[in-house]
């Protein structure tokens, strides 16, 4: 294991260490065989890890999010002489259409149906965008036929699935609530409880049930320390973007600014 990998692995979780080992294999393949390597869909945290690992290597790194804005994206690692064509990312945008007068679809419904009805791994699916009468999903191109053949119903709604042009990508406006909270300590359970007006025992249950991620990683410790810049995703609730601590209240509690994106 080379110095770059050892240094980076010292400061990350065990989960990240396993991912970094895989990313290092990608880099070695590019450098040893002079061939491009395409990742599955990665979250921004994973993209950052690969970027750090590859920063001093003789290769090019391309991110599909730089071509089609998205949260989850595919990375293409390639030799230094490589010239990118956007089709090299091998992804498609699928449109899932349904009759909105009969009901709505939610993110968990769509993802659950895609996984269970196709048997595919979560990593082959990118962002899921929920519109008024259609849902759009980024997917890896080799699995398009399987998805369109197997998925005919989501929840109680019949659906039709077809490839959509990237120019038709939904532009969704997120409604973000700004909120100021006061905490006696920056623990995970207490911040979540205050942000969503939950009892602390309920917030602790969410943590212990693996329903909360901090910066895209599951955290099972109720006392896990939260800091400015962290992003929390709470299954069924939404997301919290943690701002700076802006002082203390008269009683000595920490004042924290939050931006909350509640799940609809």
Architecture overview:
The chain is an alpha+beta fold and 264 residues long. It has three domains: 3-88, Ribosomal Protein S8, Chain: A, domain 1 (2-Layer Sandwich); 91-168, RRM (RNA recognition motif) domain (Alpha-Beta Plaits); 177-262, Structural Genomics Hypothetical 15.5 Kd Protein In mrcA-pckA Intergenic Region, Chain A (Roll). The chain contains seven helices and 15 strands. The strands form four sheets. The chain has a six-stranded antiparallel β-sheet, with helices on one face. Strands 5-6-4-9 form a four-stranded antiparallel β-sheet, with helices on one face. It has a three-stranded antiparallel β-sheet with strand order 1-3-2. Helix 2 (14-33) crosses helix 3 and helix 6 packs across helix 7. The longest helix is centred in the N-terminal third of the chain and has 20 residues, at 14-33. The protein is globular, with a radius of gyration of 21 Å. The model has no long low-confidence stretch (mean pLDDT 91).
């Amino acid at each position: 294991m080379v110095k770059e990998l050892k240094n980076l692995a010292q400061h990350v979780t065990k989960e990240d260490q396993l991912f970094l080992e895989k990313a290092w294999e990608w880099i070695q393949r590019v450098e040893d065989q002079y061939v491009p390597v395409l990742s599955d869909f990665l979250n921004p945290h994973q993209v950052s890890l690969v970027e750090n690992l590859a920063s001093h290597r003789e290769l090019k790194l391309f991110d599909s999010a730089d071509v089609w804005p998205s949260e989850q994206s595919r990375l293409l690692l390639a030799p230094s002489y490589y010239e990118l064509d956007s089709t090299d990312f091998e992804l498609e945008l699928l449109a899932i259409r349904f009759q909105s007068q009969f009901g709505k679809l939610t993110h968990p419904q769509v993802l659950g149906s895609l996984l269970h009805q196709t048997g595919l791994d979560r990593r082959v699916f990118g962002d899921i965008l929920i519109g008024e009468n259609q849902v759009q999903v980024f997917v890896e191109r080799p699995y398009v036929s399987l998805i369109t053949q197997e998925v005919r119903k989501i929840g109680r709604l019949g659906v039709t699935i077809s490839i959509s042009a990237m120019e038709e990508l939904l532009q969704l406006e997120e409604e973000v609530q700004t909120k100021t909270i006061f905490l006696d300590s920056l623990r995970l359970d207490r911040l979540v409880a205050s942000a969503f007006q939950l009892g602390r025992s309920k917030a602790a249950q969410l943590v212990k049930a693996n329903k909360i991620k901090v910066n895209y990683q599951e955290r099972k410790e109720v006392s896990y320390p939260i800091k400015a810049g962290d992003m929390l995703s709470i299954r069924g609730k939404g997301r919290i973007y943690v701002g700076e601590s802006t002082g203390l209240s008269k009683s000595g509690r920490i004042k924290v600014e939050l931006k909350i994106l509640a799940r609809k």
